[in-house]
Amino acid sequence: MSPTNSSSAPPAEGAASPGSPKRGRARENAILAVALELVAEAGFEALTVDAVAARARASKATIYGKWKTKDEMVAEALRRQSEGRAVLAPDTGSLRQDLLATTHEMAAALRGRNGVSLVSLVEAVRDHPGLRDAARSQMEHASLEVGAAIAEQAAGRGELRRNADVPACLKLTLGQLLFDALLTGSVPGRDEQERLVDRVLLPLLKNPHEEAPETPPCRPAG
User: Fold this and answer.
1) What tens digit of pLDDT does each residue of 75-116 get?
2) Could you tell me the CATH number of the domain that includes residue 115?
């Protein structure tokens, strides 16, 4: 098993430098993508530089020349995963549907779709401050951007309660989904997500005085 800390890492001297900054960046991204794949497959604690090097077809000297520990490597992978990625809030036309769509996306992230599973990093982030900061920054950034957009849309429709804090409610939602996943071993399904939105989020956020849409009058048959 290869070493994973700076005290036993091989020296970076002699590692081949990339031919150009652009090519070097692309190569780094490929290595980091492999690191996240391996974390998603086996968990952070099982990750080794040997495994990353083998799958990425890179030398360990190259990897250690960029990241002294696997903590640094995975933290950087998380940061780059969100770099340049537009955080798009749903715009379904209703606060409830926007919250449901966002909750579904959170559940997908916890399961590991399109990237490393957040559940697989829970134990690691507790003991590795750099990794914890990167994961927290990524999640908080998304919650703030999406929450602000949902709030603006809902306020424009008159759906939002005064002083409602949508970003805080999204963080609450992620925490509940993560807690359930850790407690039961699986991410809550869509029925449970819907109950969370209807019984917790909407009472906190929805304007109780919102006017209901007009219902067309019933016409007598015949």
Assistant:
1) 888 888 766 555 678 999 999 999 999 999 888 877 764 445
2) 1.10.357.10
